[in-house]
Design goal:
Length: about 350
């Protein structure tokens, strides 16, 4: 064998693909991941083409920008147009609300700044104490600990518009959807470094093989292999392919920081509706930094889906992006119509970039 070339080693990939093919199940199998980075690895390395025909690898709601309801983007837009500076990440800047995006709001006179981290936003607010800043806090469990830390020390002129969502409740919802007929989960590596393995223990008990996987091509192929092996054994288990980064307990300090600052509440997911206990809200002692309590935000119920856009079906893995009639015609990464085309982690954007290369 050639020298090991890391988690992209071609010879190992071929060997693993051979092992996967040996495990080809007699009936079609549908494996779901919920991570934009997994989808990026799968699509840009052509991993689906390596799998047996009856093994279908689908992308679930793994993009933290795509699942923020339009109404919550409308709230950020309202804030930017009504005297506060909204600070957010680049992907969120372009995500469509009911009518316009934050980018559009800026061109209409809204105050919007793009940052790489919440720390940058807090420092910005500290430099201008006479001005009000709102951080549009989106993301899954990977990004919440940083926001929790900043909530405990941010200046008085800083507040959060919290749109965080949690991955395990979304997996619960997917597992319970009869028409999805899932046969296994590939759990997200980044999120799992924070939450550990514990929250996934229930899925094998529900009959769902579950493997936490890393983001390199060999990680994902190994994750598929481990799930197919569990299916062949007829014994659903929770396994950790990403043991070089994920522990059973996860990052306990990060979990404690989140628990000190946030309560868990029901939350709406764009195109999916409400999922119980899937969102976060600042605890009462941090209410002075809760933008929804600090300002009288006046927006309507929100329109999540652009006419003709199939994002809800894409987010659930019911269709692939190229089955949407607008895909790379009316809807492109440069001119997105739906939220799934905006972020680098959106399934439509990932497929479009691959198709347009
Ligand atoms: Fe929506 Fe565009 Fe994706 Fe179609 S291609 S589902 S319009 S984001």
């Amino acid at each position: 064998m050639e020298q090991f070339r890391g988690f992209r080693d071609r010879e190992l990939a071929e060997l693993l693909t051979k092992r996967i093919r040996e495990l080809e199940p007699p009936d079609p199998v549908k494996i779901c991941h919920v991570c934009g980075t997994h989808e990026w690895t799968i699509t840009h390395n052509g991993l689906r083409h390596l799998l047996p025909e009856n093994v279908n690898l689908i992308a679930g709601p793994g993009c933290p920008v795509c699942i923020v309801p339009a109404r919550e983007i409308d709230e950020a837009i309202w804030l930017s147009l009504n005297g506060t500076t909204v600070v957010t990440f680049g992907d969120m800047y372009r995500a469509p609300g009911s009518e316009i995006s934050l980018e559009d709001a800026k061109s209409q006179g809204g105050e919007v700044k793009v940052v790489y981290s919440v720390r940058d936003a807090v420092e910005m607010a500290a430099r201008e104490p006479s001005h009000e800043f709102v951080f549009f806090a989106i993301g899954f469990e990977t990004t919440t600990p940083m926001n929790a830390v900043e909530a405990e020390r941010c200046p008085d002129n800083f507040s959060f518009l919290v749109s965080h969502r949690l991955i395990p409740p979304a997996l619960d919802a997917l597992a319970e959807m009869d028409d999805l007929n899932l046969d296994g989960f590939i759990a997200p590596g980044h999120v799992s470094t924070v939450i550990g393995m514990k929250p996934y223990q229930k899925y094998p008990e529900m009959g769902m093989p579950t493997v936490i996987a890393g983001f390199e091509p060999l990680d994902v192929l190994m994750g598929v292999y481990m799930i197919l092996k569990q299916i062949e054994d007829g014994e659903p288990r929770l396994e950790n392919e990403y043991s070089r980064a994920v522990t059973f307990e996860g990052n306990v300090k990060a979990q404690e920081a989140v628990a000190r600052v946030f309560d868990t509440v029901d939350g709406a997911w764009r195109g999916l509706g409400s999922i119980p206990a899937s969102a976060l809200k600042l605890k009462e002692e941090f209410s002075a930094h809760d933008a929804r309590l600090r300002y009288e935000i006046d927006v309507g119920p929100g329109r999540d889906v652009y006419p003709g856009c199939s994002c809800p079906q894409v987010i659930l893995g019911k269709i692939s992006p190229d089955e949407c009639p607008l895909f790379i015609k009316e809807c492109t990464p440069e001119k997105p119509k739906g939220a799934c085309m905006v972020s680098r982690e959106g399934t439509c954007s990932i497929w479009a970039i691959e198709a347009l290369l």
